Amino acid sequence: MSDLFDRPADYQEKRDRLVEAMKRRHAGPVMLKKSSSSNLFRNRSQISERLDVRDLNRVITVDPKKLIVEVEGMTTYEQLVKATLQYNCLPTVVPQLNTITIGGAIAGGGIESSSFRYGLVHETVIEMEILLSNGTVIVASLDQYADLFYGVPNTFGTLGYILKLKVKLVPIKAFVHLQHVFFSDASKFFQTIDTITETGKYNSHRIDFMDGSVYERDQHYLTLGTLVDTAPYTSNYTYMKMYYRSISSRQEDYLTIHDYIWRWDPDWFWCSDRFGADKWLIRLLFGKWLLHSKTYWQIIGWDRKYQLGEKLSRLRPHQPNHESVIQDVQIPIEHAPTFLDFLHRRIGILPIWICPAKDFNKHRFDFLPLKTKGPYINFGFWDFVETDRDPTKGYYNRLIEKEIARLGGTKGLYSESYYTSQEFWQIYDQKRYNHLKQVYDPEHVLKDFYQKTIKRA
To answer: What is the pTM of this model?
Structure first.
């Protein structure tokens, strides 16, 4: 078998091992031992009892006729995309960074430029095989254990661990034709997004992918992608050229489908400048190693382990404080111009990633509580904000959380979060969560939703 694929019998053997490990666990909480990065961008408390799921990382079957892939939960999207491209198809929604695992995208949320058509990653799932804390494995779908099927997304593994999934695929073509459409006015920018989300077209042409970038208050770019069979040329942004800089410098472009899917990964959107990777010489010397989200995660891991940033800051005692603001925020589209104006006035982080999405599944998932039936806009902004306050108190992050609440939005819980317990359970249905917890994890072997996502347990 290819390194990308497992036989069903191989998966069964892995599953049986995990079941036995869960049953033999000691008293106390359990967490996963993974080789991939965490879906929380912050340190977590250490738990001695860890369930080793590192080898649960293969595709089992790809059915290009039924457009379904069966895949193990710790499989990265890099591996999953390699496997499905062999059959000229892709997962319906592929998150931006190739180190993200499919199980993590369900447990913690996943979005990309096809979400205006298909919603978030969890809305493209057909069924999930879930390991409960008592060692039982159940298959959750629309038809069985539907309460858990609708409860697992966005609860970060606090109700059960996803071992295997069946996920929808879409057929693809070899290339993507890109249009980078400029808008000086934010309202017109969002109005155009709304229209394309409703019609699936721009200037009578089918649109398969859509996202946007805000570089200044009067510089908004809407990037529209259309699948095509042929291309007059293809651009390469995996080494010396940077995709995010191309957006404002050219009106159209062509990429292979593979390079389009991973267009943001080499520069971690535009965050590579934090690692010096935007410099020509650094890219020339280290680019083949550096330009990959896996490497950025490794550097962050080293910083967490050895506190390199903190030690460097001590050498510069008179430097101003900086508060980390890492946020992915979902706002109803009618309030998107207001929220963008707030970001310009109060936060000041640029660029900002814009990704529209809509509810694809007619049922509401329990813990993604968007107060809208129409499309919404994901705002992604990640940087440090200079502050004269204690950066650990989260002044700017708290401003953002209050504005989200005022506009009826929500946010990805991998984000920097400072909610009080009361605020958190006003957003998320505590009664519903406690009921599911009592049914599927009555001994609280797995962490609590609030404790894991906000208190970093």
So the answer is: 0.94
